[in-house]
C-alpha cells in the first residue's frame, strides 16, 4: 500500500498503488482527448475571439506549457509527459512571399518578424525547458497563391526564427532540424493559415 497526501488538508490516504497509477493514466488520457478535440474545433473557428479562447484552453491542457498541470500530474505519479514527443499547431497567418520580403524596408521586415514571434508565442506557448534535441518540422502553408519550393522554404525564416527564440528549436541548422515544407492553394482569404507539426527526434550521437 502507498501513501498519497491529500492536497486539501495534508492527511495521508491509503491507496492501492496499481489502481492509483491506472487512475492517473486515465486522467492523462482524458486531458489528451480534450486537448485533441479543442485543436480540431480551433481549426474550424472563424471569429477571432473564439480562436483566442480556444488557444487558451488548448494551452491549459498542455502539461509542457502549463506548469500547474505538470506539477499536478507529477504529484499523482505521471512524471513523463507523453505529448512532449509530438504536437501540432495552426497559426492564422502565412509568411510573406520571398519577393515581397526582399522589397520591404528593413523596419517593415523587423515588424513582420515581431508579429510572427507574437503569433508563435500565443499559439504554441513555450516549452518548460528549451529544446536541446533534433526536431522534425512539417510546415504546410495554405495561401491563395502557392510559391515554388525554393521560395517557400526561404519565406519561412521568420517562422523558424520565432520557434528558435521561443524555445521550440535549438537551431534551424540541419544538425538540429529536419524540415519539410509544402504550400497548397486556399482561395478563401480568411482561411489562409500555417500548419506546423513538431516532432522530437532521437539525439545524434557523434563518434
Q: Please give the CATH architecture of the largest domain.
A: 2-Layer Sandwich
Largest sheet: 4 strands, mixed
Helix content: 40-55%
The counted number of beta strands is 6
Structure overview:
It is a single chain. The protein has 207 residues and is of the alpha+beta class. The protein has two domains: 1-80, no CATH class; 85-207, 2-Layer Sandwich (60s Ribosomal Protein L30, Chain: A). It is built from seven helices and six strands; from the N terminus they run E-E-H-H-H-E-H-H-E-H-H-E-E. The longest helix has 28 residues, at 17-44. The N and C termini lie far apart (46 Å). The model is unreliable at 1-17 and 79-83 (pLDDT under 50).
Q: What's this model, at a glance?
A:
The chain has 207 residues and is of the alpha+beta class. It contains 7 helices and 6 strands.
Question: Which helices and strands, and how do they pair?
Answer:
Elements: E1 2-5, E2 12-15, H1 17-44, H2 48-60, H3 67-75, E3 86-91, H4 98-103, H5 106-124, E4 135-143, H6 149-154, H7 157-165, E5 177-185, E6 193-200
Parallel strand pairs: 4-5
Antiparallel strand pairs: 1-2, 3-6, 4-6
Helix pairs in contact: 1-2, 5-7
Annotation keywords:
single chain; 207 residues; alpha+beta; 60s Ribosomal Protein L30, Chain: A; 2 domains; 4-stranded mixed beta sheet; two-stranded antiparallel ribbon; 6 strands; 19% strand; globular; disordered N terminus
Amino acid at each position: 500500500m502507498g501513501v498519497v497526501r491529500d492536497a486539501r488538508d495534508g492527511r495521508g490516504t491509503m491507496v492501492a498503488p496499481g489502481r492509483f497509477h491506472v487512475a492517473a493514466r486515465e486522467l492523462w488520457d482524458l486531458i489528451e482527448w480534450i486537448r485533441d478535440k479543442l485543436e480540431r474545433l480551433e481549426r474550424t473557428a472563424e471569429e477571432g475571439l473564439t480562436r483566442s479562447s480556444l488557444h487558451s484552453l488548448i494551452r491549459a491542457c498542455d502539461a509542457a506549457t502549463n506548469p500547474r498541470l505538470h506539477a499536478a500530474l507529477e504529484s499523482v505519479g505521471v512524471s513523463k509527459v507523453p505529448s512532449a514527443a509530438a504536437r501540432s499547431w495552426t497559426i492564422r497567418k502565412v509568411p510573406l512571399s520571398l519577393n515581397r520580403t526582399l522589397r520591404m524596408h528593413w523596419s517593415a521586415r523587423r515588424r513582420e518578424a515581431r508579429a510572427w514571434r507574437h503569433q508563435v508565442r500565443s499559439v504554441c506557448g513555450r516549452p518548460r525547458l528549451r529544446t536541446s534535441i533534433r526536431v522534425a518540422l512539417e510546415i504546410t502553408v495554405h495561401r491563395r497563391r502557392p510559391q515554388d519550393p525554393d521560395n517557400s522554404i526561404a519565406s519561412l525564416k521568420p517562422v523558424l526564427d520565432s520557434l528558435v527564440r521561443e524555445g521550440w528549436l535549438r537551431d534551424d541548422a540541419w544538425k538540429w532540424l529536419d524540415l519539410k515544407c509544402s504550400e497548397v492553394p486556399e482561395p478563401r482569404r480568411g482561411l489562409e493559415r500555417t500548419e506546423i507539426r513538431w516532432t522530437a527526434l532521437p539525439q545524434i550521437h557523434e563518434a
